[in-house]
Amino acid sequence: MRGAAFLAVAAGLVLAHPAQAAAPEFVHFTPARGDFALAQDGHVAQVVTSAGDHELVRIAAEDLRTDLATVTGANAASDMQVWIGTLGRNPAIDRLVAAGRVDAAKLRGAWESFLIVPVSNPAPGVKQALVIVGSDRRGTAYGAYEISRAIGVSPWHWWADVPPQHHGSLYVSAKARRFGPPSVQYRGIFINDEDWGLVPWAQGAEPDEPAPGPKTYAKVFDLLLRLRANTLWPAMHKASRAFNADPANAALAERYGVVMGTSHAEPMLRNNVGEWTGKAEDFNYLTNRDAMRDYWRTRVKSNAADETIWTLGLRGIHDSGMIGPTTDPERRAVLEQVFADQRELLREAGISGAPQVFTPYKEVLDIYRAGLKVPDDVTLMWTDDNFGYIRHLPDAAERARSGGNGVYYHLSYLGAPLSYLWLSTTPPALIREEMGRAWDKGARKMWIVNVGDIKPAELGVDYFLSLAWDIERTRTQPVETWMGHWLADILGTGQGRGAEEGTDPQAAAVMSDYYRLNFARRPEHLQWYLPGQKPHASPLTTAEADARLAGFAAMEQRLAALRQQVPAGRADAFFELVDYPVSASAAANRRFFAAEAHDALRDTAPAESWRRARIAAEADAALTALTRRYNRDIAGGKWRGIMNVEPADGQWRSFRQTPPIVPALAALPDIAAPAPEPSPQSSLPLLRPEQFTRRPSPNGSAWRLVEGLGRYGALLGAGAASASAQAAITLPAGRWQAVVDLLPAYPSDNGEALRLTIRIDGKPQVLEIPRRTGDRDWADAVLDNRISVPFSALLEAGQHKVTIESGDPAVMIEAVRFMPADKSITPT
Asked: What torsion, rounded to 10 degrees, do the Cα atoms 290, 293, 294, 295 define?
């Protein structure tokens, strides 16, 4: 160990709950009795490790030294020390444990856990030490990074250009704290569809290495550790160099203690699009089994010593179905042989006990449900439908398997019906609901989230990994409150004793509007026909579109007010994390709906049509300027190439929207046309979630208000079967049809339909909503983020009582709308 050997903690230490986050008073800027002085009077504590500890511990310790110097500006060493060590790897800590001065009983054998405690006179010549002791290498590193977080160094310090605030004095509370084990064992990200962001950026930023290479991955690994993640599925498109094609990448991952895995399309750590050199049709296990086994065997031999989660199974070369078998029984038989052969390769290499995972993604889920036998110790990795709705949850038999269960989730996607690769608009509340359902059903072994290029999905990535680290502490906190704390840390605008300890409700409200408005239609989905279909206009009238744009305009006004409050040093972070996504989504909507109105009004109101054309053209220019600023100006031009408005090019056109045709500004006639007075909106009758009285069942379970989701800011979530929710409404003259709008979630019992009973004036109707992934109803549902189901009976004017009864715990209701009986039901 460098420096003195050592460590002590008071006897009778009471350990806190697992995986807790640092409390606000953990680190503060004025001393209290018994505090450890991390920095004061121009001096900073020395950071000390053992020479026999893991390389990751030395990396984390050096990062802490750098972070302390950055925050305090101090370089002179005080007589205080920070001791960082892993149980069994630090002789001084082990001696203190043996002597009973450190109670490590709850650390021994624990996964990724750590203890932080200040100790007086821990060793001769050492006045006081802050002891960070971990149960394993990552637990120790997380302990060091916990201090970095607490002194104000954001995990996004590099990836989002978040500088810490200066504090010359730093004090750590005398109270001992224990963190871990995490809620989910393996927690990580998948870098995917990187062709239009990460790869062009890396090619320019690191021109001396294939993109992405070790210099880029070092930044990724730093981010993962600071976010308390431990797993990476690396970039795998053809535009990228295969991760394992450069041995330096795997060596770097091992140094950083990052567990490497691969996606469902890359079994046995093989990037097929970059490494399979034969013909695509030869990737056929029926006709080319020996060559494919040798292909996998080579990778097993080269990476057997690394900490790896081995993906089992077989699909096509890329994200496509298996080549060769033509029926599901044939595919099932091939997969079961593949499992046996792949596990034999691991046994031959002496790593049969290494973690293994099988992901029944897309068409493979049907094969699994048809009776596929997966070895009991293999983790089953369930997936969403690529749009945030989890297709399958573990049943009792699956929960009993020794391999456990996990989830592969999406915050970005390239594929049908339309991709979303540009702005990250999946609401944190949807992540909470879906991942919470999965956790409650036993998916606790492994969570991986598809993050695209990482940017601009920072908030969603952080929230997902916060849930994975400590699900109860995270999901019981209102999403807007969590965002307020996160944004205060990022922007330095918090209300509280210090920005790192406060909240920013104004910024949180802006982001809540951003998620709510874009939930109704993502910026990448601003067309209401699918690629290959005949183009047609959106179902919104001009007045309805104007109402939507008014919501974006109000959001932009709040953004402008917020912009004035951001400290100059956080301006780049603010632009990247708040300003660009909010402004770009608003501009995209103005461009689309103004262009659509220009076309619609061309013959009947030419002056207004040209006014709309100018709005569309100016919005298009604003998008160009915003994106240019991101790529060329922010952080001194650091992010050149990272941001592209979707679609960025002509590739994969069958999965991407067609940009609206916008007249050129220079070609517009010089016609003065005042904006017309807003036409009064005839508001149709509507019951929102908060208008329902929620009556509990005998066991106390009731329908709940799910904040942060839906067009109106909340959903009505199902309670027990005997619980109900009731509301009354008075309908005006005419005949009406009730329409129930639901979130397009999947049944909790993995069945084929969501079920719900609704009564109007006592007359029941059982609604069965089929959920078949891939059909047109599914496509409409995920693009609208809702399913609209009509009530069969027509209603007359007057008062009516609506009672909703649950049939499935997955049911979440956005509203009950009442439409004129002669009007067709269209998405809005």
From this structure: 120
